[in-house]
Amino acid sequence: MKQIDVVLGKKIKQRRTQLGLSQAELGELLQLSAQQIQRYESGENTISVSKLIPLARCLNLEASDLLEGLNEEPVTAPTLLTREEPRKLRLMIVEDDSADVILLMEAIQETDTPVEIIHVYEADKLLQTLKSMSALPDVILMDINMPRTNGIDALKELKKSSFKQLPVVMLSNSIRVQDLLAAYDAHASGYIQKNAQSDMYVQDIVTFVTYWRNVCVTPARYKN
Description:
By secondary structure, this protein is an alpha/beta fold. It folds into 2 domains: 3-72, lambda repressor-like DNA-binding domains (434 Repressor (Amino-terminal Domain), Orthogonal Bundle); 89-223, Rossmann fold. Helix content is 48%, strand content 12%. It has helices at 3-18, 23-30, 34-42, 49-58, 63-67, 98-109, 126-132, 151-159, 177-185, 198-215, 220-223, and strands at residues 89-94, 115-120, 139-143, 168-172, 190-193. The longest helix has 18 residues, at 198-215. The radius of gyration is 23 Å and the shape is elongated.
């Protein structure tokens, strides 16, 4: 639920009340259900431009009248979780090996799922990159074995920063149990061991992308 939708919904409800229209009556004019009008007024549903213009006309207003001053409203963090249609997954990959990145991107393409990829080559540049971003990633997929700063150390630094809520899943060729335990000790949200069989590796990535896009609600949706 976005603050701008809540404010717009209040303006619609106020104008509807002034005109003496019920939600059902306004919905009938727009060929919508009373429940849909209620969702608009509560801010639960975003009003598309194609619906905003006829809605304004039914309220004897111009669309600009409803939009006036919305950008001046203070933006506050939403207090309720809402189930929204899945959007493009923002995935940050922290990986220094270009060949592994290409293989990972090819696997992601097999998912037929919209994914926006942000690639960071060096783990010690992770926090710097996050600070420069206008929209945070939904999930970070990070290799363990990297030069200068390894993935575990980068994960520990991230979890001590203002970005500590971002989920980080470790992706590694390592077969050492101590790497797995170290990742979870540092509060990793998951650990994926790279499968040597390409078809199984692709399936693992398909499952990963589907899970984080379609099932999980991530902090980035409420912090951006």
